[in-house]
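Below is how a single chain appears once it has passed through the pipeline. First comes the sequence as given, then the structure the pipeline wrote out for it. We keep one example in the README because the format questions we get most often are answered faster by looking than by reading.
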Amino acid sequence: MKIAYASRTGNVESIINALGIDDPLCIVSGNEQINEDFIIFTYTDGYGDIPGEVESFLNINSSFVKGVVVSGDMGYGEAYCQAGDKIAEMYNVPCLYRVENAGDAQDIVKIQEILAKF
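Resulting structure:
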């Protein structure tokens, strides 16, 4: 399964690198296109918002999204990882995993286990 990701501060990119994902699609402008099923990895922007480039990307490629993994900061309380919940609801896909910032080794193992099911 293809992996697409957006990373502003480097946390999500760090997760992608730790997972050893082959040829992930990095979302920069939101105009990128993908023609196969994918899981999106994203950060949470502002106070629980979906990043603008991720919204644009999903508007173009929504028919292929199969799940979301989201990074957030618990310091934002109820807004923690809300971007993933919003994407899951908007596109009727599961929010597969919520991770604080770049996560830790245990998070990476859990995400690998989830991805192995796809």
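The helical segments are 11-19, 52-61, 82-91, 105-116.

See the next section for the split statistics.
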